């Protein structure tokens, strides 16, 4: 129990370490960390006492309980799994694409021990990690060669650094976009050493604008697909085929930064058409860059594919080592690409499983949640794609709607569950969308909801 005392009555670190409670903490957290936590607690108490804010001092158990809380706070992971019930399929803040079971198993297999990351089994000599996943990518897309790096911004930076340093690069003003985290395409281009040449206007760009830039010395044309916004109204933009024709007529290269990395026809699922990697290559792009963790549904990665001679230059650039992908990324990427080659992406890649989920299935799941909780109403709503893909596009869904006091506090309480639950509000109701809740998470979701409803009654 707390007691009135002076600072001289505080036990020393060594005295506290002799207790059974401290021995349990040391066994759980290690002696050095436990010593540090005890010292931190004692220093905090001394500081509060000297400021006059501490009238009583805790007993030994109280001190060590504080140390236990400090140890918990120090060691609790900040990166942890959550249940995404928001209905945003590619939620950038929640890690974008969840991986398939096969991709996770592939990551685990190479992480548990040694691997052929940079070893050629046939020759017994050093190999190259840049070759991993290349055969799968070229077979899938028809590209001559491919390289995987750690993200798409790195892919664009590497391509421009290797192919356009000191050269003029033409890009439409409408494509000078900013992506998540404040990173801007013009900044990436300048960092590569390329000289930015803006063409056209914000809403209208013509082939003649690119031709003028090429006549003025531009050696490369970059298209940055606007995957996180739309320009509507009085607009004009040449097709990728027309841009390729302009570039090649001017003896220049065309790089297409697709961003989302779609390999399947999105219109099949009731969405607007998202340009695919295969279409970019057929249109004449010399290089295509895209993400691995957006509509591709794999790990965070940046992929470059296209002409073999250009990829050979890129592989040799010093920056290629700085932005290379690690073994777990390459393993997961290869496993994800195999799903596409085996024509099973819709059933095995979680992103496509979510996008293709039938409305009747979503409704049945939401109704099951309502029945289990004896609360809520099932309503029609919309899921969004997110992740810088298909801007403005939504899919019809069914959600569980809960009427609760202070929905903002309810969402906060859901985030404190284990695992945390991320939901959204609409018209002062809490909405939970089954489209983005993995089937194996439903039990934990219902437990978290039940716990929160008990502490936040309607």
List keywords for this structure.
458 residues; alpha/beta; Aspartate Aminotransferase, domain 1; Aspartate Aminotransferase, domain 2; seven-stranded mixed β-sheet; five-stranded mixed β-sheet; 19 helices; 42% helix; globular
Structural commentary:
The structure is a single chain. The protein is of the alpha/beta class. The protein has helices at 13-17, 20-29, 31-50, 60-75, 101-111, 134-141, 152-164, 185-191, 207-215, 240-249, 277-283, 308-316, 319-322, 327-341, 345-348, 350-355, 359-373, 407-415, 442-455, and strands at 83-84, 88-90, 119-120, 125-126, 145-149, 168-172, 195-199, 218-224, 253-259, 287-291, 302-306, 377-386, 394-402, 421-422, 424-426, 429-432. A seven-stranded mixed sheet has the order 5-11-10-9-8-6-7, sandwiched between helices. It is globular and about 85 Å long. The two termini are 37 Å apart.
Write the layout of secondary structure elements.
Blueprint: H1 13-17, H2 20-29, H3 31-50, H4 60-75, E1 83-84, E2 88-90, H5 101-111, E3 119-120, E4 125-126, H6 134-141, E5 145-149, H7 152-164, E6 168-172, H8 185-191, E7 195-199, H9 207-215, E8 218-224, H10 240-249, E9 253-259, H11 277-283, E10 287-291, E11 302-306, H12 308-316, H13 319-322, H14 327-341, H15 345-348, H16 350-355, H17 359-373, E12 377-386, E13 394-402, H18 407-415, E14 421-422, E15 424-426, E16 429-432, H19 442-455
Helix pairs in contact: 2-3, 2-4, 3-4, 5-14, 6-14, 7-12, 9-10
């Amino acid at each position: 129990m707390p007691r009135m005392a002076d600072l001289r009555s505080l036990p020393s670190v060594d005295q506290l370490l002799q207790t059974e409670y401290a021995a349990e903490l040391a066994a759980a957290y290690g002696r050095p960390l436990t010593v540090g936590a005890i010292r931190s607690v004692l220093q905090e108490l001394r500081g509060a006492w000297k400021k006059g804010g501490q009238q009583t001092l805790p007993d030994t158990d109280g001190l060590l309980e504080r140390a236990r809380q400090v140890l918990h706070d120090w060691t609790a992971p900040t990166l942890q799994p959550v249940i995404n019930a928001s209905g945003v399929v590619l939620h950038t803040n929640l890690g974008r694409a969840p991986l398939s079971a096969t991709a996770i198993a592939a990551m685990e297999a190479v992480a548990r021990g040694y691997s052929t990351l940079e070893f050629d089994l046939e020759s017994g000599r050093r190999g190259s990690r840049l070759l991993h996943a290349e055969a799968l990518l070229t077979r899938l897309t028809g590209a001559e060669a491919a390289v995987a790096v750690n993200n798409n911004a790195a892919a664009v930076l590497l391509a421009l650094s290797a192919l356009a340093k000191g050269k003029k690069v033409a890009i439409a003003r409408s494509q000078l976009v900013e992506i998540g985290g404040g990173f801007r395409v013009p900044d990436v281009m300048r960092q590569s050493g390329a000289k930015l040449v803006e063409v056209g206007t914000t809403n209208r760009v013509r082939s003649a604008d690119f031709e003028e830039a090429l006549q003025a010395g531009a050696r490369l044309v970059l298209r940055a697909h606007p995957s996180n916004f739309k320009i509507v109204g009085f607009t004009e933009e040449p097709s990728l085929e027309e841009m390729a024709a302009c570039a090649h007529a001017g003896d220049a290269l065309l790089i297409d930064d697709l961003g989302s990395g779609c390999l399947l026809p999105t219109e099949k699922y009731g969405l607007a058409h998202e340009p695919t990697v295969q279409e970019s290559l057929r249109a004449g792009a010399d290089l295509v860059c895209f993400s691995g963790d957006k509509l591709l549904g794999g790990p965070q990665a940046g992929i470059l594919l296209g002409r073999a001679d250009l990829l050979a230059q890129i592989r040799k650039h010093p920056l290629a080592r700085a932005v290379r992908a690690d073994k777990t990324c390459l393993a997961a990427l290869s496993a994800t690409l195999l799903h596409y080659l085996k024509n099973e992406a819709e059933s095995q890649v979680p992103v496509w499983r979510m996008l293709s989920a039938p409305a009747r299935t979503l409704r049945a799941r939401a109704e099951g949640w309502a029945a289990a909780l004896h609360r809520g109403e099932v309503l029609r709503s919309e899921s969004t794609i997110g992740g810088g893909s298909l801007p403005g596009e939504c899919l019809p869904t069914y959600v569980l709607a809960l009427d609760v006091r202070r929905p903002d506090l309810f969402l906060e309480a859901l985030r404190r569950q284990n695992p945390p639950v991320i939901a959204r509000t609409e018209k002062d109701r809490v909405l939970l969308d089954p489209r983005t809740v993995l089937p194996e998470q439903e039990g934990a979701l219902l437990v978290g909801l039940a716990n929160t409803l008990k502490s936040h009654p309607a």
